[in-house]
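User:
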Amino acid sequence: MIELEGVPELVDPVMVAAFEGWNDAGDAASAAVAHLDKEWKGEVFAALDAEDYYDFQVNRPTVWLDGGVRKITWPTTRLSVVRVGGDKPRDLVLVRGIEPSMRWRSFCNELLGFAHELGVELVVILGALLGDTPHTRPVPVSGVTSDADLARTMDLEETKYEGPTGIVGILQEACTHAGVPAVSLWAAVPHYVSQPPNPKATLALLNRLEDLIDLRIPLGELAEDARAWQLGVDQLAAEDSEVAEYVQSLEEARDTAELPEASGEAIAREFERYLRRRDGGGPSGGPAGHATDGGGDTASYLRDTPSERTRPPRPQRPDPGTETPGGTGDTDTSSDSGGDSSEDSPE
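Assistant: Predicted structure:
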């Protein structure tokens, strides 16, 4: 039974979903939805019944104290709504949870029921995968869809992926069969520094989402976190000659693969984003729910800036004989900055 009491009538709603687990390298995708929920003060209006979809020996509930009273939080998927004002108001339905352990078809049908009742016009599913990409370059973000018409109108790749899939791929196909436009955005996370968090990948997903739905997203401290993350990985890589040499080889491969035209497109996209943020103006947390991001320098996360923040975990040494789940061997990593492109993303 779907209960939607108390949910206001939404304006041109877009559903944005992310799931922890196999489709969430470095927690980049789930962190992106959490960021939207925090910045726009989302209000939870529904949660799926955890008993229906989760194996509690895999995703265990947690016990906590509330004023001396013991309570249990069950692993589940929650839906919240955020109201975004401004010149072009558009509401978001945020779906954030854990990849279900069972009954994936019922899980997707229940989410589609919410989408139908709320009048959702587009579903955007965020994912992150491990890939052979250097941390020193812009994060490759690919946008894929199963809808040929949508691919043409929104400048996306039509997915051709074949192989094992996760809940992101299943939900996208369920949307397609139900006639709901759906897009998946995938960020590639360096496999040698895969430990969460990865704010640089989260930032890249949000930037691509911003372009896709034409909505300015407040970044808060995320750009600074991304700079600090890259600086920390730079320092750790410099301390290990094998890792430093491996990163250099990835950089050379990436730079060789990039075409001048693609780089030009990336510069144009960054400039358009800068103009959109500048024109939006207004202080952080203003009436339109917008926030500035350090004077409008939206490409600043690509540069190294000293920071006193805690270093990330030590990068893992690459093992040429080991396959990485979700590696670039089965993914489309067409870059948000016009980077290298391989095959389709593992869905």
